[in-house]
């Protein structure tokens, strides 16, 4: 169905309130984006951060009479100097089809592909992860995931145990199993991520080799390879927890790190690990380390 977008420019402190006002006036969805193209790379854990000047957009059905809504918004004291807004018509499209068209099979390294279900598999003889984009993070399109998948593709994982810390969709654990790992353990704070990981493992025929746990329920184990694709802050805060998973002579791969954060993350692990040179893709970093003997 067609839609109308109502977009209002707001200072950071007022953005969430204006979003609530749009919802209160019948917006079917509200989104926030930067008015000046200033990226926020890593907000504090659990904190929702807005830009200094934020564009707040409400989405309304096309038949909506916008004048009463705009008049209602103008009554707010936040717009005492006038409400600056614009409206746009969105054409009627098959949004699901348009969304699906954006996803294609992607190759990582020499052997590994990630393939959505509605596309033909480019190389049936390759190692193919069948994975559709969904709620849980991790489909291979982000540089951090791509770096980890590329690293896994270059390893001999035969008979090894792999821990995927912050498993999301389970893509790294599933990739490791398809590449020859004997066992994988996914850990995530989000129950939905654990469900998605198990469902994706079923689809790829490796469910019996994958275990998933919330952090509170995770077992004591030592893994040959630990992959943690989260963010620099949690990587530092959880350094002792993540390190404890790595077996003697085991390997640790970490991503979700910006170039300016390399030294801080390495410092958190330097006592027990030796680092290889960082791999960088589009400003994002993957660190590989081996436990010291």
Describe the structure.
This protein has 293 residues and is an alpha/beta fold. The chain has two domains: 3-92, ACT domain (Alpha-Beta Plaits); 104-291, 3-Layer(aba) Sandwich (Rossmann fold), CATH 3.40.50.150. The protein has nine helices and 15 strands. The strands form three sheets. Strands 8, 9, 10, 11, 12, 13, 14 and 15 form an eight-stranded mixed β-sheet that branches. The N and C termini lie far apart (62 Å). Residues 37-52 have low confidence and may be disordered.
Q: Estimate the strand proportion.
A: 25-35%
| Total number of domains | 2
Biggest sheet statistics: 8 strands, mixed
CATH homologous superfamily identity of the largest domain? Vaccinia Virus protein VP39
Helix-strand sequence? EHEEHEHEEEHEHEHEEHHEHEEE
**What radius of gyration results from the CA coordinates?**
23 Å
| Helix-residue proportion | 25-40%
* CATH fold assignment of the largest domain: Rossmann fold
**Unreliable stretches covering 5 or more consecutive residues:** 37-52
Estimate the mean pLDDT confidence: 85
Tally of helical segments: 9
CATH class of the largest domain: Alpha Beta
| Total beta strands | 15
Under the CATH scheme, which architecture of the largest domain would be assigned? 3-Layer(aba) Sandwich
Q: Distance between termini?
A: 62 Å
Assign the structural class, choosing from mainly alpha, mainly beta, alpha/beta, alpha+beta, or little secondary structure: alpha/beta
What characteristic shape results from the CA principal axes? elongated
């Amino acid at each position: 169905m067609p839609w109308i977008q109502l977009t209002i420019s707001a200072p950071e402190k007022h953005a969430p309130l204006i979003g609530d006002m749009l919802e209160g006036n019948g917006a079917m969805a509200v989104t926030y984006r930067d008015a000046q193209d200033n990226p926020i790379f890593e907000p504090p854990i659990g904190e929702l951060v807005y830009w200094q000047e934020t564009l707040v957009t409400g989405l309304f059905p096309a038949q909506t009479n916008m004048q009463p809504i705009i008049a209602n918004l103008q009554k707010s004291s936040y717009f005492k100097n006038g409400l600056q807004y614009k409206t746009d018509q969105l054409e009627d499209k098959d949004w699901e089809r348009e969304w699906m068209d954006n996803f294609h099979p992607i190759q990582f390294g020499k052997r590994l592909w990630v393939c959505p279900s509605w596309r033909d598999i480019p190389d049936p003889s390759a190692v193919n992860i069948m994975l559709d984009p969904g709620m849980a993070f991790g489909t291979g399109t982000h540089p951090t995931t791509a770096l980890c998948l590329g690293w896994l593709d270059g390893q001999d994982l035969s008979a090894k145990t792999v821990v995927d810390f912050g498993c999301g969709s389970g893509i790294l654990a599933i990739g490791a199993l398809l590449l020859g790992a004997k066992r994988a353990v996914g850990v995530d704070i989000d129950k939905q991520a654990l469900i998605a990981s198990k469902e994706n493992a079923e689809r790829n025929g490796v469910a019996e080799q994958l275990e998933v746990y919330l952090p509170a329920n995770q077992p004591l184990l030592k893994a040959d390879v630990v992959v943690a694709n989260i963010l620099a802050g949690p990587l530092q805060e959880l350094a002792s927890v993540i390190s404890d998973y790595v077996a003697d002579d085991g390997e640790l791969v970490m991503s979700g790190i910006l170039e300016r954060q390399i030294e801080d993350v390495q410092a958190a692990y330097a006592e027990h690990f030796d680092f290889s040179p960082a791999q960088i893709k589009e400003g994002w970093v993957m660190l590989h380390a081996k436990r010291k003997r």
